[in-house]
Amino acid sequence: MENFAGLSGTDADYQTSKIVVLPVPYDATSSWIKGADRGPEALLEASVQLEYFDTETGAEVYRQGIHTAAPVLEQSSPEALCDAVEKRVAAVMDDEKFPVIIGGNHTVSIGAFRAVAARVDNLTIVQLDAHTDLRASYEGSELNHACVMFQAQKLAPITQIGIRSMCKQEMNCFDPARIFFARDIFFDQTNRWEQEALDTLSRNVYLTIDLDVFDPSIMPSTGTPEPGGLTYFCVLRFLRRLFRTSNVVGCDIVELCPNPHVKAPDYLAARLAYQLMTYKFRR
Fold it and tell me: What is the per-residue burial (b if ≥16 Cβ within 10 Å, else e) of 53-77?
């Protein structure tokens, strides 16, 4: 795999880098379109085309150092995969670095949740996603990608943004004050929802982004595309405020299912990752 943004030397050295990108090419629990295991490599390949200068903030976050770690290759079971991710994320956090996990399907986030929750008090897990992912079990596994936020709720309060699909059984599994449906966001011309969402958060936040939160018109390359998604700048506007008002301690970007003939979604995912790093370290 490529180093993120094609960095090398001191810009990518683990010891001096403040940011660690952790690829997790895992797809075993996907339930529809397969290929998320190719997502990390596609994102890293696209990231080589990034400009280092950010026009919004005037920052060049690569100067903070961005190390691309060896991928987590555990495939024997969902349990083993989550344990392996937890161990790797824990090591990054113990070294006081900012983890950016790139999946793989959403199951990879569970291990990250566990590592962060064990080390950070007063935590909220913020989910940007088309689906609630609140099933207790799906297709015979409690660690299926459709069960991710059910697992998250065991560790910390959750706030869910961009939701537009769920099963009836999930209706009793979420707090109505902490879920922000895509249709309501679309019709909220004053963007009042943003402050309402921010008001649900504690001081420390872990951010998990399933790329199907975006509308399929700009992000068709996901395992479960859902119409009616958010636009790129709608997401960035919220994330900018989130990073200003909360201490984001780590993040992940998951569910990129690359199409070899359409590269724009891969680049969107890479650009989004770089923007998250920029918002974290722009000061």
Answer: ebeeeebebbebbbbbbebbebeee
Domains of the chain: 4-281 (3.40.800.10)
Say if CB 112 and CB 91 are below 8 A apart. no
pLDDT 10s digits, 6-39? 999 999 999 999 999 999 999 988 878 889 999 9
Q: Where are the alpha helices (DSSP H) in the chain?
A: 39-47, 78-94, 108-117, 148-153, 182-187, 192-198, 232-245, 264-281
Please, what is the Cα angle at 158 between 154 and 113, to 5 degrees?
A: 55
State CA 272 to chain mean position distance.
10
185, 165, 178, 282: which is closest to 233 by C-alpha? 185
- How far apart are alpha carbons 76 and 30 in whole angstroms? 15
User: What is the pTM (predicted TM-score) of this model?
Assistant: 0.97
Q: How far apart are CA 152 and CA 135, in angstroms?
A: 11
